[in-house]
Amino acid sequence: MQLNQAVSVRLSQLLQEKSMTQYQLFMKSGVPKSTINNVIRGNYTTMKLSILHELCQGLGISLSTFFTSPVFDEENLDP
Q1: Among 8, 28, 35, 60, who pairs with 42 as Cys (CB 3.0-4.6 Å)?
Q2: 39-57 burial code (b ≥16 CB/10 A, e <16)
Q3: Closest to 26 measured CA to CA, from 1, 48, 51
């Protein structure tokens, strides 16, 4: 799996765990809805860490919590 796909999967998981919609995340994080949608769809091949940080703030988690997931295990990511 590509890294952008792993970010997409993890963000989708967290939204589901927190019973949040993309709109609610937009309201809490300030990240535009179109950006959130593009991240979830895996349309970004690169992403600014600042955007990911804002998304994490909207989710009420830290960056380390975001990356604490099996989807980011090295054996699950393409080189």
Answers
A1: 8
A2: bbeeeeeeeeeebbebbbe
A3: 51
Distance CA 38, CA 54 (A): 15
| Integer angstrom CA distances of residue 52 from 55, 56, 67, 72, 75 | 5, 6, 11, 15, 22
Question: Which element (helix H / strand E) includes 40?
Answer: helix 33-41
Question: pTM for the whole thing?
Answer: 0.91
CA atoms in the 13 A half-sphere facing the CB of 41: 7
Contact 39, 7 (CB under 8 A): yes
